[in-house]
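[#protein-structures] MJ: dropping Small ribosomal subunit protein bS6m here for a structure pass
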Amino acid sequence: MLYETIGIVRPGNIAEVKELVLTAGKLILNQGGVIRDIKNWGTFLLPRPISTNQQRHTRGHYFVMRYDASIATHEEVRRTMKADPRVIRTANVKLGDGKLETLSRFGGIPWRSLEEA
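AK: finished. structure tokens for Small ribosomal subunit protein bS6m:
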């Protein structure tokens, strides 16, 4: 199945974001999955302040990862991201129904910059 994970990590250190993506990527690849795309969206204000791990966050570093994996692998990625104290929030979405003709409709991960608006 094709999944998309949008992660928000505490801002300030790009190495933390890289380490989180690397950890999730290793989990996916070690269990026979395929990473389709990874995008770094950068640091933005959160829609509302979020409190996690006794810290209040108003900004977050966003990234998106799209990958093919089994349900068990996807659940392991979700558990790993949720347990990490550097992660403010994640959202996971299953894209399509696993059929090739459905998956071919999903292209790259779009992002419209503020300059284009």
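MJ: nice. Helices lie at 14-30, 71-83, 100-103.
AK: one more thing. DSSP finds three helices and four strands in the chain.
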